[in-house]
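User: Before I run my own analysis I want an independent prediction to cross-check against. Here's the chain; please return only the structure tokens and, at the end, one sentence I can use as a sanity check.
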Amino acid sequence: MNLPVLTHSSTDTPTQALITELQSLGLRLVDEQAGAASRRGGAGPSDHKAVTIDGTTVMVPVHTGAAKQSPYLAYAPGADGSGLLERDGVAIGRISFPRQPRFYSLQTFDGIPYWKIAVLHASDVLATTVLQTCIRYQNRATTCQFCAIGQSLKAGKTIARKTPEQLAEVARAAVLLDGVKHAVLTTGTPNTTDRGARVLCESAFEMKGAVELPIQGQCEPPDDFAWFRRMREAGIDSLGMHLEAVDPQVRARIMPGKATVPVSYYFAAFESAVAAFGRGQVSTYILAGLGDSPDAILRACEQLIEAGVYPFVVPFVPITGTPLESHPAPAADFMRPLLRELGTMVSRANLLSRDIKAGCGKCGACSSLSAYERMPVPSTRFRTEERPTCQLTSTPGQSGAENVAVPNSPNAAPPRIGSAANPGRRGVTVTSEPMTAAAALPRRGGHLHDSASPWWDTIREESAPTAAFPGLLPPPGVGIFRIRLATEPWELRGCAELRRAVFCDEQHLFAGSDRDAHDEVAQPIAAVSYAMGMADEVVGTVRIHEEGPGVWFGSRLAVAQDWRGVHGLSSGLIRAAVRTAHARGCHTFLATVQRQNVPMFRRLHWRSLQDVEVCGRPHHLMQADLSFYPAADEEVHNLGADADGLRNRKNVGISN
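Assistant: Structure tokens:
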């Protein structure tokens, strides 16, 4: 028996209508523990939960006052991973929930749970607030009335400052273990003229050294627009600068502090940012339902699109504990025509969310805008009869949901087509796409290994993606390494033995020993592998020494053969070397680099000074840009830690 339940405009698909209604009305849950943990408080969108609807994962309010009164009710998922969805007590289909990410079970070397550093957003986005404090938040006269950035910090659910090393460690694990596809770095606004751009640069640069992951940075417009170029060079792929509201009176009422930065200044910043990042790689968040009229929003969006900025319009979600916790969310009837018109506008301009490299617009989970961007091919999972008012229907007990498989599990069931397998069935099937082994592996690039005196003599760069590893991913702990100053006797011995193995036994550049006068004053740095949570052996090393006041050199970079396929190990040693010297007063850091490796070092923000010859081989004398290598905190001896490196023992060797 077909159950007519949800009515919607004939110009909307059932998926569009359902997502828009759920994001306006919210969702009640029989089992609040289903799937990945929901989020309360914090910066950005909150008080919601990830739900997968017809293959699309969206964020739906579950903790708001409106959600508690919602006509929608989701039952606990069954064995197939899907649960029944009801509206006003009538079944309309099935939905599923993304599973709890595996990286949540890990913690950093200094004991901080990964989920306090970054969280999974939707199904494949890593999100973090680098600075969990804001100059505007503590004063109600300046705070954004919708923001809850301090709530999660007060509740002990996060930490105030995430270091670049922590973010790199968590990002790598999230990619390897959970197949994360891109990341969002946002920040509270600090009391600096860069408005947080500097910490975003430092964080992105470290993360890109650990794993290939597209990154969106988010901050207020800085005073100096040169920061846009710096952010792009640091590894940020797309940028978000959020208007939140477009009418000056609404902005002054809703966010009095942020409104002191006028809309005209944002548009000047947008123009400069698009020049740095490219058309469609800059976006802005607009919260519908705070007082802006649809016409005002669409007029602003027209200007944004003309400037090459993607306007990400989302329904306002009131967050508990904020001054606007009782402010109503916009009705679905308000959002549908707005998003329908905006979807037509961005489609006509070919400014689509799918083309954004990373960030909120690409994710699209907080709005149904992406569903309106183009006229989709009618889904075989939805079957509605043509009539002036369409009906979303479902047959109880007939789920089209595919099994939610653990990534790479050899026992994972293949996806089921659901109602498409039986044309006589009608219904919405709400599913989660299983990850493949390939999806859970990062792209490898920039792997280094060392050779001759005095610096990086042989580097091999692998730009192609790795082949999928058969079977399960290694459990947490396999391939973990930490980079630190070598001070213990066993660490110093390990560094010396590794150098001898590479430079004497393997490359025959020295007879018996590679030691020289620099070792009397040099600071060795070691990459130490960990097994069962304990330090195991030295798998990489580099040394630094001061040649003259403020002038430092790096040399003797070596990586064990079995570890030369681990992304981020050698580049992490380079970062550790430069950052340690920077902390000790370095103003110039130099190295001699083999000629074919110069492009690689340029990507790490080194510049070539002159051609030189070392050991009969052509080299370049190169200098590091210290602005990309902040001084390391030597007290913690955690200089560029990486984690969960998967070792591919194929194609290991020296490229001379």
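Sanity check: Residues 443-628 form a domain with the Aminopeptidase fold (CATH 3.40.630.30).
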